[in-house]
Specification:
This protein is of the alpha/beta class and 578 residues long. It folds into 3 domains: 313 residues, ABC transporter transmembrane region fold (Up-down Bundle); 173 residues, Rossmann fold; 71 residues, P-loop containing nucleotide triphosphate hydrolases (Rossmann fold), CATH 3.40.50. It is built from 18 helices and 10 strands. α1 runs antiparallel to α2, α1 runs parallel beside α4 and α6 runs antiparallel to α8. It is elongated and about 135 Å long. It binds adenosine-5'-triphosphate and magnesium ion (MG). Magnesium ion binds next to α10.
């Protein structure tokens, strides 16, 4: 940036030498016209003509040389300042994105995706506009002003005052006009965001839209939003159309004043004819930087607002702190001790006094009605949230004391909404272990009972699954997310209702892997269905955030409570639970 500032000054130095050379040339011509006329009829007249023509060519060459030098330094100026701003932009965007990823899940629920995206894209760009172009034109303006006014005053301070008189009006009016332009562009931007999300929602929800025959209604809504966008754009167009004539008018005024006042002074002999030409060039030189004042001011305002928005997120500390303990394998001893949990954003108490213990290698099932708090138990275990009361202990140590990355890395969590990325099938599975080889991937897809189906896809493991995995069936998505968790070879496995879309046989096949690869690992299976064929060491029944029943399959059946009812219902109408 410092180098850039120096280049701006050097470039402008060569710029203001040009009008001075032109002045010299013009004065030379004016003087010699008289001499030339007085030599009418003599041979020397021809000679003078030749000398004059040659000298003028030298002047022309000098102007060209100056322009060339100016251009070279302008190139350096852009290569330093603009490049610097791009580097700043890159760093800022990267660190903001990295910071986002460190933040807790609650943060992403509180702030909508559009806002998060806007800060990492538009706001960062606005800061760059300030660091780059605004700084560059600002320095350019200052240096040019100093040099031009210095050269002008050296000729005539009176003429300087006259021809600069319209410039303040120019910059003030441009400032106001650009304020209007900015407000209007901002509204257009907002409307564009609405338009984008409207279109995006109708596309991603196209199945619902079609099923409810709402294409026309959605279309109408979209055209209303487009109409709004059109009007806002046209109104900006009008202001823009006024902008340039206004600018030209004021520049014209300046030039006329220079010629008029300068002409009078030249007649008086205070200045030369060449000075008038010099001044006209100066005035034109200043106009672009002066028009830029309003523009620079508004960029600065926008950048300040954007930086504030960026800082607001950068200064948000992750609510889930990482104590950075030594990472190491987990034994898989899990204990919930009087756990209470209230969702911080809604105040819903999801868990009340939940206590249970799982020894290393034990398998547990959590059953319960929808909304009873099953997912919350899993979320607390991998610290998507922290408890509001009580303690969650793993291997006898509070989860909050465990190394966060290690804890999550060694836990295979298959969330309820098995999110897939728009990547190939193998890419999605290797997400659990990036360095995994194809043979390893296949071994785990076999455990998840999905290998054969993947082979049946058009491009096998290379098939791209589309956004969120839209090209796959619900059951296929679930099993791919199970394979993704298994390939991590976790010490603790958490399956959140991820067999709901899988038929009973496939389910049996998947759960058989419990006896193979997960034999000595701790596992928690959250489910709506009761598996009598799988021996769980413990089953807990949640209702309204409380453990209402607890025991083994046989014990719970004997108790004839909620679990028994559920089992009976399932036995009577097995297909209802499929
Ligand atoms: N992110 C959240 N923010 C606020 N409240 C939540 C959030 N997630 C769940 N809840 C609330 O917490 C309670 C327990 O939800 P949880 O997701 O643990 O239920 P669940 O047993 O997993 O249900 P399901 O079987 O439908 O998946 C519910 O009342 C729910 O409304
Ligand atoms: Mg759930």
């Amino acid at each position: 940036m410092l180098a850039g500032v120096v280049f701006v000054f050097i470039s402008n130095y060569f710029r203001i030498l040009q009008p001075q050379i032109i002045r010299e040339a013009l004065d030379l011509v004016v003087e010699n016209i008289r001499l030339y006329k007085s030599m009418e009829g003599f041979d020397v007249q021809q000679e003078l003509y030749g000398v004059l023509a040659e000298t003028l060519l030298y002047f022309g060459a000098a102007v060209l040389l100056m322009a060339l030098l100016m251009g070279v330094f302008m190139y350096f100026m852009r290569q330093t300042i603009i490049v610097m701003s791009r580097l700043v932009e890159y760093d800022l965007r990267k660190s903001l994105f990295e910071h986002y990823e460190r933040l807790h899940t609650g943060f992403f629920k509180k702030n909508n995706t559009g806002d998060l995206m806007a800060r990492v894209t538009e706001d960062v760009s606005k800061v760059r506009m300030y660091m780059g172009p605004a700084v560059m034109y600002g320095v350019n303006l200052i240096s040019l002003f100093i040099m031009v006014i210095y050269s002008m005053v050296a000729v005539s301070w009176e003429l300087t005052l006259y021809c600069l008189a319209p410039l303040p009006i120019l910059s003030v009016s441009i400032y106001y006009v650009s304020q209007i332009i900015n407000k209007k562009s901002e509204r257009i931007q907002q409307q564009l965001a609405v338009l984008n999300s409207t279109a995006q929602e109708s596309f991603s929800g196209i199945r619902v839209v079609k099923a409810y025959v709402q294409e026309r209604a959605m279309g109408r809504f979209f055209s209303e939003q487009s109409e709004d966008f059109r009007q806002k754009s046209l109104s900006l167009g009008k202001v823009n159309a006024l902008f340039y004539p206004l600018m030209l008018l004021l520049i014209g005024a300046s030039t006329i004043i220079t010629v008029y006042v300068g002409g009078l002074q030249a007649v008086r002999g205070a200045i030369t004819t060449g000075n008038i030409a010099e001044f006209v060039i100066y005035v034109n030189m200043l106009t672009w930087p002066v028009t830029a004042i309003g523009w620079i001011a508004s960029i600065m305002q926008q950048a300040a607002a954007s930086q504030k928005r960026i800082d607001e997120f950068l200064k948000t500390e992750p609510a889930i702190a990482n104590p950075a303990h030594a990472p190491g394998p987990l034994k898989g001893h899990i204990r919930f001790d009087q756990v209470n949990f209230v969702y911080p954003d809604t105040g819903v108490q999801a868990l009340k006094n939940v206590s249970f213990e799982l020894k290393p290698g034990q398998k547990m099932a959590i059953v319960g009605r929808t909304g009873s708090g099953k997912t919350s138990v899993a979320d607390l275990l991998v610290r998507m949230y922290d408890v509001s009361g009580g303690q969650v202990l793993i291997d006898g140590q509070d989860v909050r004391a465990h190394d966060l990355d290690n804890l999550r890395r060694r836990t295979g969590y298959v969330p309820q909404d098995g999110f897939l990325f728009s990547d190939s099938v193998s890419g999605n599975i290797a997400f659990g272990k990036p360095e995994a080889e194809q043979s390893e991937i296949e071994r785990f897809t076999k455990y998840a009972a999905i290998h054969d189906e993947i082979m049946g896809l058009p491009e096998g493991y290379g098939t791209v699954v589309g956004e969120r995995g839209v090209t796959l069936s619900g059951g296929q998505k679930q099993r791919i997310s199970i394979a993704r968790a298994l390939i991590k070879q976790p010490d603790i496995l958490l399956l959140d209702d991820c067999l709901s879309a899988v038929d009973t046989n496939t389910e049996k096949q998947i759960l058989a892997c419990f006896n193979e690869i997960m034999a000595d690992k701790t596992a928690i299976v959250i489910t709506h269905r009761i598996y009598s064929y799988l021996q769980f060491d413990k089953i807990i029944v949640l209702d309204g955030g409380r453990i209402v029943e607890e025991g083994t399959h046989d014990e719970l059946l004997a108790a004839k409570g909620y679990y028994y009812e559920m089992f009976e219902r399932q036995a009577v109408e097995p297909e209802a639970t499929l």
